[in-house]
Amino acid sequence: MNPFSFATTAQLICEPGASRRLAALCREREARSVLIVTDPGITRFGLLDGVLPGFQSEGMAVAVYDQVLADPPESVVLAAVEQARARRADLVVGFGGGSSMDVAKLVALLAHPDGTQLLHDVYGVGNARGRRLPLIQVPTTAGTGSEVTPIAIVTTGETTKMGVVSPLLLPDLALLDADLTLGLPAPVTAATGIDAMVHAIEAYTSALKKNPMSDLLAREALRLLAGNLEEAVHNGGNREARQAMLLGACLAGQAFANAPVAAVHALAYPLGGHFHIPHGLSNALVLPHVLRFNVGVATTHYGELAPIVLGERLRRGDPASYAEQLIEEFEQLSARVGLPTRLRDAGVPEHMLPKLASEAMLQQRLLVNNPREVTEADALAIYRAAY
After folding, report:
1. Among 103, 164, 163, 112, residue whose Cα is nearest residue 134
2. Coil, strand, or helix at residue 141?
3. Where does the pLDDT of residue 157 fall: very low under 50, low under 70, confident under 90, or very high at 90 and above?
4. How far, CA to CA in Å, does 150 sit from each of 86, 138, 145, 154?
């Protein structure tokens, strides 16, 4: 066994309806003024309606910043930080999908009254310094795992993104409440669910930091996700399936936070940057093609995951056969859950593929984790296969 370290969110509550106790959980942390960071859809669909009255009951001030956009730009982060300072927030809640939770992490870091760092100071790995405000994360999609990762992604230009990676970004509490996901549209459920499955698969094959803890979490995440994704998509009111999806996404997040993701994500990022394809769908579009590219060096690992994903549908065979069945499953899964299966169907023009391949090569932070080295020619071939 190679030496490894493992870090994750300090506390996890996994319980339908638990978000109604959010104010009390903030009070337990001696908060006096709370900023909830979220997006306009959360406000529009009333997901905070059962949460906000508790703050008055607990005698706490609460404000809502609900202007987070998908793939949040720097301006959104800075506006949220300014509101936290203006409200003298002493606890931050991220409430929503990965974008809201990522912004909340940076607000907790940059709005601390003792902080001196600016946003551009903290980009990269390990550049965040000092202290942050207490941070609670409440995911409303079962996908990103951001509630248990030390990573925040920010859009820094027209098509470029930067990451902040630091243990300081790990929240104090992740609250998993299936009731918040019951109204999630089927396409969002599908895309975020496959995103979480990608996290588990890439953690399990991560070249540099794969370890027994991440493996354990990745396997259990895949069992929960594969066993409940189609039910959650086609019967969105199934609370048990929804709670299992939330936990699966969380476990996958814990896995990839410690054994990082690789080529699927590296190739997905330019798709989001240029065409604003949702991150989970971007991953789903390239996943089977990256699996097929990797299979020659990852046969054993893919073979180990196949029985977890396929269950009783697995046909008996050797590890190579199992790996092939795993790839075939992901070639078919997107169609079964109603997602586009080709880049052309998601609005990607063929002439852009070389540019996408070139930009994917900028994601060396991710590509070094891939079990097989990826050249620009390889990336282009994968995009062409996905087209």
Report:
1. 112
2. coil
3. confident
4. 26, 15, 10, 14
Residue 239 CA to residue 289 CA, distance in Å, equals: 33
d(C-alpha 132, C-alpha 305), whole Å = 38
3-state secondary structure of 345: helix
Q: Which residues pair with 61 in a beta bridge?
A: 33
Residues 45, 17 contacting (CB under 8 angstroms): no
Of 214, 188, 195, the C-alpha closest to 45 is 188
Measure the CA–CA gap between 31 and 108, rounded to whole angstroms: 13
Edge-first strand order for the sheet with 173-176 is 11-14, 173-176, 135-139, 91-96, 33-37, 61-65
CB 242 within 8 A of CB 178: yes
Question: How far apart (Å, rounded) are the C-alpha atoms in residues 97 and 182?
Answer: 14
Topology (CATH level 3) of domain 182-386: Dehydroquinate synthase-like, alpha domain (1.20.1090)
Instruction: Name the token pair of 348.
Output: 């990607």
- Distance from CA of residue 311 to its chain's centroid? 25
- The string of DSSP letters for 25-83 reads HHHHTT-SEEEEE--HHHHHTTTTTTTTHHHHHTT-EEEEE----SS-BHHHHHHHHHH
Residues β-bridged to residue 63:
35
Q: Decide if 343 contacts 383 (C-beta within 8 A).
A: yes
Whole-angstrom Cα distance, residue 186 to residue 322?
29
How high is the mean pLDDT of the chain?
97
Cα 30 from Cα 91, distance rounded (Å): 9
Residue written as token pair 């930080």 = 81
Is the pTM here over 0.85, yes or no? yes
Q: Where are the domains of the chain?
A: 11-179, 182-386
What does the alpha-carbon distance between residue 77 and residue 119 come to, in Å, rounded to a whole number? 8
- Does CATH place domain 11-179 in 3.40.50.1970? yes
CA 361 vs. chain centroid, Å, equals 21
Cα–Cα distance, 145 to 328 (Å, whole number):
25
Single out the residue of 271, 291, 237, 273 nearest to residue 340, CA to CA: 271
Q: Give the pLDDT band of residue 237 (cuts 50, 70, 90).
A: very high
| Both structure tokens of 196 | 């979480």
Q: Which helix (H) or strand (E) holds 6?
A: none
pLDDT at 1 over 90: no
